[in-house]
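Sample intake sheet
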Amino acid sequence: MQIYLNIFLILLTHFITPSEHETHVSITEIMAKENQELEISIELIAHDFEYVYKKEMSKSIKSIFKEKKEYYDSNEIKIYLDKHFSIFQKKSKTELKIIGNEIKLDGSLLIYLEGKYKKNIKHIHVNNDLLVKWLPNQQNIVNLNGFIKSNLIFNKNKKSYVFQ
């Protein structure tokens, strides 16, 4: 009887496609340092980024190999990020500069950014709808550390939040 149950479970798993149950996640760490610098890292799945980039930009993003490291052209990433990830302070957009990116062996893409925040700021407004247009199950976790310590999960329904 156990063998029939195992065969049934194996067959059942083949009929259910992974895309029906996939969860897509990104993790963004924002560190607001005492010297008014913002250090930001975004981690997401590289093939999810490639898929969404191709859908949205109507062209592929190609990885580059250099010095035994794999990465994307930062200018191409910036074009996408400018549309889907932003920080505002006192109603003005914070200029974010990409300082690098890398594709890890586990398939994750790490993007490193920096920016400046204003003195005596009491809140930071974050917009984050990375990948959600094309991957509706996408969850974007944002962890804020520094003068404000908070976290939130962004998704297709919650794309913007003011951290206070």
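Comment: The longest strand covers residues 24-32. The first helix runs from residue 2 to 15.
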